[in-house]
From TrEMBL:
Keywords: Glycoprotein, Leucine-rich repeat, Repeat, Secreted, Signal. InterPro entries: Cys-rich_flank_reg_C (IPR000483), EAR (IPR009039), EPTP (IPR005492), Leu-rich_rpt (IPR001611), Leu-rich_rpt_typical-subtyp (IPR003591), LGI_related (IPR051295), LRR_dom_sf (IPR032675). Pfam families: EPTP, LRR_8. Residues 209-258 form the LRRCT domain. This is LRRCT domain-containing protein. Its main location: secreted. GO terms for cellular component: extracellular space. It comes from the Eukaryota. GO terms for biological process: inhibitory synapse assembly. It is found in: Secreted. Residues 1-42 form the signal peptide.
């Protein structure tokens, strides 16, 4: 038992240095404090560790390899300096519940773990200066609700004067001063919301650290704006464009700090050609045309299991499309088949199944390749694109009893795809074909028919066409199997190419939008499928992610329970359901 090591001379050394005012108070108090060190008052049960100096109310240890395991009952301060341990763990000081001051300066601490300071309801001062901390755990300071000042001053490294304070003499409560010190560490970032519990925080000093002001510091930037505490400069040491800037001054980070990804959510053990979706009475359904199993599989989103479950199977023969349409609160599914004609099924909600509703008159259709359903005014239509040389793409119209063939469109051209869209406020239909460039029909109100209006030049061999809008602008995606698929933009009176994407066996170039992000999925039979992401500045799509799907034929968006999915049909493997997820790059 060697008594206090704290000498007046030590303290004088420090008072001469450049110290913040608050430190000077400490130094002064140190003088009075040291004169009060009275080792004789220690309780017998407690033996002061050899590396420490102890009094009834305080312990100071220099160069220890651990935290003292027993302590005087009334201990109010503990200092451990130049220690050799590298971490402090959960409830490590809980056996000293009367502690009011804890100083852990100039140790080799690299980590402060969760709940390290739990069980210290009276702790008012906490110093962890001049360690090698790179970060602290999120809940490192949990439970310290009384802290009012978080003070991280720029101290001289290896501060040697470690004075013990009798806090009751300082009238701490009336001063309402509390310090938490993390100064002179190598802190690059602090875990999110580390200060959130510190409701009464008045002052925080974070100087002397090297913050990385990237997305991980976003919460700190926001917190700096909202806190009532006085906070020191928080200087950024990186990344390059932030170096030397004050995080306190910033209102936003360059980066939006959000990324997205597509992750496999579920796989449906069936090959498929096309997918459609509809919602009915708060439930979301998906219809999958599965020619190899001769079914139109109907799935329903299970709100409890959070996946898509089998609901019904509409059986048929070589089903290539199951297109849903809701007319006067009734759900119909148009089932296009290669053989045995095409049919319409009607949803019977009570029996949880689809029943045959009508046969479609298909004498002119030999090889349906696509169904597109749409409304013009109050009238319902669908069109079947026929890809056989002998066939005829046909428009059908709803007449209250069913759909009946209404207009024959495009003869002899082996149509691959139909797309309905509004162009400058007028209804249009684009038909893509194997044997000519895509043609555009315009709906004539007086004739109540589609009239051929023109074509999209230099676009031979388009297998699919889809329109999409980004900020009021209208675009088309044109899928071509080999060579380049194209993105076109509607300009004054015509479409012009804005981007070409390399197709390597592509049957589908599908645009879709999730959470204000515009994507383009390009299927590929020969390599990975590519997902592109729209760049708002460059106004083109950038490569975003590769996914492997065998012989992809369609990408269909299905959103439910605020979750976004994309169904990718596969002609040679399972139908894959990817979920679009948001990745928060902040801490
Ligand atoms: C701190 O510890 C190191 C060895 O661990 C020693 O060399 C140094 O002198 C100590 N400093 C003080 C001030 O005791
Ligand atoms: C800051 O102080 C105001 C006024 O006292 C109070 O309403 C507000 O809740 C405080 N904000 C925080 C983050 O503590
Ligand atoms: C539909 O068919 C699949 C297999 O083709 C089967 O696993 C599933 O149970 C069927 N669903 C219903 C509702 O009958
Ligand atoms: Ca289509």
């Amino acid at each position: 038992m060697s008594g206090s090591q704290c000498s007046i001379s030590w303290c004088r050394v420090e008072t001469r240095g450049k110290m913040p005012p608050a430190l000077r108070i400490w130094a002064l108090l140190c003088v009075s404090l040291c004169s009060l060190c009275q080792p004789a008052l220690l309780k017998k049960a407690f033996r002061c560790p050899s590396t420490c100096s102890c009094s009834k109310e305080s312990i100071i240890c220099v160069g220890s390899s651990n935290i003292p395991r027993i302590a005087p009952n009334e201990i109010t301060s503990l200092s451990i300096v130049n220690g050799t341990f590298s971490e402090v763990r959960e409830a490590m000081f809980a056996h000293m519940p009367t502690l009011q001051l804890l100083l852990l300066n100039s140790n080799s601490l690299t980590t402060v773990r969760d709940d390290t300071f739990s069980g210290l309801p009276h702790l008012e001062y906490l110093f962890i200066e001049s360690n090698k901390l790179e970060t602290t755990s999120k809940f490192a300071f949990r439970g310290l609700r009384d802290l009012t000042h978080l003070y991280i001053p720029q101290l001289i490294k290896n501060l040697l004067c470690f004075c013990i304070f009798f806090l009751n003499m300082l009238h701490v409560h009336s001063l309402a001063m509390f310090f938490r010190s993390l100064a002179n560490n190598n802190i690059k970032f602090l875990p999110r919301d580390v200060f959130i519990d510190l409701d009464s925080l008045i002052e925080l000093d974070l100087r002397g650290n090297a913050f990385e002001c990237d997305c991980r510091a976003k919460w700190l930037m926001m917190w700096l704006k909202s806190t009532n505490a006085t906070v020191s400069d928080v200087m950024c040491a990186g990344p390059d464009d932030m170096k030397g800037k004050r995080l306190n001054d910033m209102n936003s980070l360059h980066n939006e700090c959000i990324s997205t990804d597509f992750v496999l959510h579920q796989s449906v053990a069936s090959e498929s050609l096309s997918v459609d979706t509809f919602s009915f009475k708060n439930d979301v359904y998906v219809t999958i045309a599965a020619p190899s199993s001769d079914t139109c599989m109907v799935l329903q989103w299970d709100h409890i299991e959070m996946n898509f479950r089998t609901y019904d199977n509409i059986t048929g023969q070589s089903i290539v499309g199951c297109k849903s349409v809701i007319i006067q609160e009734e759900v119909y599914v148009i089932v296009a088949q290669l053989f045995g004609g095409s049919h319409i099924y009607k949803f019977d909600d009570d029996q949880s199944r689809f029943n045959k509703f009508q046969d479609i008159e298909v004498s002119k259709i030999s090889k349906p390749n696509d169904i597109e359903a749409f409304q013009i005014g109050t009238d319902w239509f669908f069109v079947i694109a026929d890809s056989s040389k002998a066939g005829l793409s046909t428009l059908y119209k709803w007449n209250d009893n069913g759909f009946y063939s209404y207009q024959s469109l495009h003869e002899w051209f082996r149509d691959t795809d139909a797309e309905f869209l509004n162009l400058d406020g007028k209804a249009h239909l684009i038909l893509a074909s194997r044997s000519q460039v895509p043609v555009i029909y315009q709906w004539s109100r007086s004739n109540q028919k589609f009239i051929l209006q023109g074509d999209i030049p230099n676009m031979e061999d388009v297998v699919a066409v889809t329109h999409f809008r980004i900020k009021e602008e209208l675009y088309l995606s044109m899928t071509r199997y080999i060579g380049d698929s194209k993105v076109l933009k509607w300009g004054p009176k015509q479409f012009s190419e804005i981007q070409a994407v390399p197709s390597r066996g592509s049957m589908i170039l599908q645009p879709f939008t999730f959470k204000d992000r515009h994507y383009l999925a390009l299927g590929s039979d020969y390599t990975f499928s590519q997902i592109y992401l729209w760049d708002d500045e460059k106004k083109i799509f950038d490569r975003f992610k590769e996914v492997y799907i065998q012989a992809p034929r369609s990408f269909t968006v299905v959103s439910t329970d605020r979750r976004d999915f994309i169904f990718s049909s596969s002609f040679k493997g399972n139908t894959q359901i990817f979920e679009h997820i948001i990745i928060d790059l902040t801490l």
